[in-house]
Design goal:
Layout: E1 3-4, E2 8-9, E3 20-27, E4 32-34, E5 37-42, E6 46-54, E7 60-73, E8 80-81, E9 84-93, E10 106-107, E11 110-111, H1 113-124, H2 146-149
Parallel strand pairs: 1-3
Antiparallel strand pairs: 2-11, 3-6, 4-5, 5-7, 6-7, 7-8, 7-9, 10-11
């Protein structure tokens, strides 16, 4: 197992301009709340691949990659869901070069690795966490799980009250 790290000291790598390194680290991930539901990353801590390159001037170019599963309820049927998520993120930190090139995760050559990994995971989570891609959800009338109930599940529709007077007509 790799070293567990919340933060990482970039200066300790002693990279020369143009030089880079690839590291395997273990990073703890926090529970994610989407709407009113909570999703736990599995596993946590997760193994990440961190690539750091020293730029020609002051600063670093960094990339982060990892795969993780989420465990929580499906947003359609409320059954258990555990999608696998591939996370890829890049950051550039060039001190004094303006907001676009100033990474919020680097402070005085210290990389806030756990914060970056957690933010990257939240951005990589799909809009709807589903138990499976073709999940049919719940019946809007009786709340039956349509994945279990099958194609034939239906309900007699109540007549529209606006047309009630037409039923009183007597036609020959």
């Amino acid at each position: 197992m790799s070293t567990l790290a919340d933060t990482f000291d970039l200066a300790e790598m002693r990279l020369r301009p143009g030089e880079g390194r690839r590291l395997g680290l273990s990073v703890p991930l926090a529970e994610i709340t989407l709407g009113a539901e909570s999703y736990r990353p599995q596993p946590s801590p997760v193994e990440v691949r961190l690539e750091v390159s020293r730029m020609a001037g002051p600063g670093y170019a960094m990339s982060l990659a990892f795969a993780v599963g989420l465990s929580g309820p499906c947003m359609r049927c409320l059954g258990p869901a555990s999608p696998q998520i591939e996370v890829r993120a890049r950051e550039v930190d060039v001190p004094g070069s303006g907001e676009d090139l100033d990474s919020p995760y680097v402070q005085s050559d210290t990389l806030e690795l756990a914060a970056w990994a957690n933010d990257a995971l939240v951005l990589a989570v799909p809009v709807a966490v589903l138990c499976r891609e073709e999940c049919r959800g719940l019946c809007p009338v009786c709340a039956a799980d349509l994945n279990v109930a099958g194609e034939g599940h239906s309900h007699e529709r109540e007549p529209d009250p606006r047309w009630a007077r037409l039923s009183e007509l007597e036609l020959e």
